[in-house]
Amino acid sequence: MVDASRFLSRAAEARRSSKRVALRDGFEPRASGDWLELVRDVTSLANSGGGVVVLDGITDIDEERLHEQLASYAEPEFESFTVEELARAGRPATAIVVSAAANTPLVFSRQGRYRGADGTEHVAFVRGGLYFRHGARSEPATGADVRDFIKRQLDATRSQWLANIRQVMHAPDGAEVAVIETAERDEEGRPTLIRLTTDPHAPLYGQVDPDQSHPYRQKEVIREVNARLDGRNVNAFDVLSVRRVHAITEETRPEFVHVPKFGSPQYSDAFVDWLVTENERDPQFFSRAKAGYLATRKRRRRTDS
Question: Is the pTM for the entire model greater than 0.85?
Answer without folding.
Answer: no
